[in-house]
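ingest -> validate -> predict -> emit
validate: passed (alphabet ok, no gaps, 64 aa)
predict: started
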Amino acid sequence: MIRNEGLIAESQLSELRNMRVLLEEARVLARDLAYHRRARVEAVLGRALDEVDRQIEDLRRDQG
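emit:
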């Protein structure tokens, strides 16, 4: 049971890392938007990145 939980946590961590990469790519693409749109998109992406980082840290803490 514990091994299965570890595999699930590793899978979740991998998915969160992939999501973080995609969000960073979206942030780069957002730089081409007009200023007022870019500011809004960057704010949303920033909050999403903060949440993904928080979840990654939670998973790491729970595994340790």
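The radius of gyration is 15 Å.
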